[in-house]
Amino acid sequence: MVGMRRSRIAVVAGLGLFFVFPSILVAQSAPATRIQAGGEKQSLADWKSGMVLGDIQGTANYHSIVVDKGKIADVAAIDSIRADAGFLRSKWQAGADKNQIPPAYLDQLKADQELLNRASNPDVPDDQRTSIRSAVAEDLNIKSLHAKASPPDEWASLVHVDINTVKNGTIVGNHAVWYVAKGWAEVPNKWTQCGNLSSPAKADLPPGAYLMRVDNTAQIPLKVGGNGKKQQTIELQAQ
After folding, report:
1. Bridge partners, residue 212, by sequence
2. How confident is the model at residue 191, as a pLDDT?
3. How far apart are CA 113 and CA 111, in angstroms?
4. 3-state DSSP call for residue 209?
5. Which pLDDT band, with edges at 50, 70 and 90, does 42 fall under?
6. What fold, for 159-237?
7. Does 217 or 48 have the greater pLDDT score?
8. Separation of alpha carbons 79 and 73, rounded Å
9. Do residues 57 and 82 touch, judged by C-beta distance below 8 A?
10. Cα-based distances in Å from 67 to 39, 116, 120, 133
11. Mean pLDDT calculated for residue range 163-191
12. How far does the chain reach from its first CA to its final CA, in angstroms?
């Protein structure tokens, strides 16, 4: 048993993986700005020293070692995470001398890494780990697709989203619209209300997988971005 334990540790260490994952370092230069499709100014953070996508890849590599290979959905999600994180990392490296990205985009990548760290805990129930892996894989895949469809210097841009609330086929107003990254739906303080009431409620969001709701109605899964477009209009049912 001792020999087997040492062997496993050697394999993990050989891949550069650790149970305590590396911290995320982001070096920010003087802030720049970009004008969003909605007309708002958007602050940008330089992330030349950003390590988050490497962290995501490393954590996914660890998951690939410990996952039950009979769990096809988990294996597929992990493979997808590794591929999309690698692609996004290559985009960053290709333009590391000039690319700047919105802090909200970087924050969402950090949140994906935090979810993967949580799923690395063997005390987390299997069904929750499967759900986390699936949510992170979906989020990164949308980001990857959006990057592929965007101009080279806008691969990490936010999407300006207009959300109309509809009742009986008619657009209605004065409703609060809430959103959250899909993997954080069960954490109440992760939900964010759009800055104005409908219609339309407005938000500038990183491409990715979300849940949205009108007031306190049921949560609706939605995809933001994935096609390289800078604007998106969504309709949600109001009561």
Report:
1. 179, 220
2. 97
3. 5
4. strand
5. low
6. Immunoglobulin-like (2.60.40)
7. 217
8. 10
9. yes
10. 46, 13, 10, 11
11. 96
12. 61
The residues, ordered by sequence, that sit 6+ positions from 46 with a Cβ below 8 Å of its Cβ are 27, 28, 29, 32, 100
**Which H helix or E strand runs over 148?**
helix 126-149
Q: Nearest-CA neighbor of 102 among 229, 190, 196, 204?
A: 204
Tokens coding 23? 């911290």
Domain segments of the chain as ranges: 2-152, 159-237
Percent of the chain residues past pLDDT 70, beyond the cut? 77
C-beta of residue 25 within 8 angstroms of C-beta of residue 55: no
Q: What is the pLDDT of residues 76-130, one digit of tens each?
A: 999 999 999 999 999 888 876 565 688 899 999 999 999 999 999 999 999 999 9
Question: Phi/psi class of residue 172: alpha, beta or left (left: φ > 0; alpha: ψ in -120 to 50)?
Answer: beta
CA–CA distance, 36 with 153 (Å, rounded to integer): 14
Tokens of 195: 């800055």
Q: Is 7 exposed, middle or buried (0-12, 13-18, 19+ CB in 10 A)?
A: exposed
Q: Are 54 and 88 in contact (CB under 8 A)?
A: no
pTM score, whole prediction: 0.81
User: Who wins on pLDDT, 215 or 34?
Assistant: 215
Q: To the nearest 5 percent, what fractions of the chain are helix, strand and coil?
A: 40, 25, 35
Quick one: residue 169, left, alpha or beta (phi over 0 = left, psi -120 to 50 = alpha)? left
Axis-axis angle for helices 52-66, 103-119 (nearest 10): 20
Residue with tokens 């000039």: 98
Q: Scanning the structure block, which residue is given the tokens 């290559």?
A: 90
